[in-house]
Amino acid sequence: MEYIRQLPIASDDDCFLCRCRDETDDDANLVVWRGKHTIAVLNRFPYTGGHCLVAPYEHVPDLTDLPTETLTEMMEMLRDLQRTLSEALHPNGFNVGINLGRCAGAGLPGHIHAHIVPRWEGDTNFMPVFGKVHVVPEFLETILKNIRQASDTLGLPY
Ligand SMILES: [Zn+2]
C-alpha cells in the first residue's frame, strides 16, 4: 500500500491517450489504428514487444461510462490486434486485460484502456532480469511497421 500511495497520479491534463487522439503524427505517437470510437496505440513502455493499448476516444475512467458501440469496437480491435500481432510477431499466447483504478494497477486511471500483451514461451524468465532496460525507439518503430504490414496483409479496415 505504501508503494501504491506514493505513485504519481497522471493528471487529466497530461493524458497521453488524449494526446494520441488529438495529434496527427501517428508515427511519433505510435498510433496503430484509429477506429470510429476507439484508438489502438503501441505501449511506449511495453511489458513485451508489441504490447498495445485500446482506448475509447472519450477521456472517461470506467466501463460504465461507455456506450455499447464503443465497448463493441474495443473488443473488435482487441480481436483484430490478436490476429495482427500473431501474423507480425508469432507469439505463443496473449494477456488481455483492463485495470480499473490506481489500486488495481491502472497507470492512467482517468482514461480507460485495455492491454493486449503478446507472450512467448520463457519471456517471464528474462523479463525480470532485463526489466530495467529501456526499449529503444527504433525497436518500437520496427514493430509498428510490422504490425501495419500484417494489418494490410489481413485486409483489416483501419
Ligand atoms: Zn485521456
Word description of this protein:
This protein is an alpha+beta fold and 158 residues long. The chain has one domain: HIT family, subunit A (2-Layer Sandwich). The chain contains five helices and five strands; from the N terminus they run H-H-E-E-E-H-E-E-H-H. The protein has helices at 2-6, 16-22, 68-89, 123-130, 137-153, and strands spanning 31-34, 38-42, 52-56, 93-98, 114-119. The chain has a five-stranded antiparallel β-sheet, with helices on both faces. Helix 3 (68-89) crosses helix 5 (137-153). It is globular and about 35 Å long. The mean pLDDT is 87. It binds zinc ion (ZN). Zinc ion binds at residues 15, 17-18, 59, 111. Zinc ion (ZN) binds at residues 15, 17-18, 59, 111.
Record keyword descriptors for this entry:
alpha+beta; HIT family, subunit A; 158 residues; five-stranded antiparallel beta sheet; 5 strands; binds zinc ion
Short summary:
This protein is α+β, with helices and mostly antiparallel strands and 158 residues long. Helices cover 37% and strands 16% of the residues. Zinc ion binds next to α2.
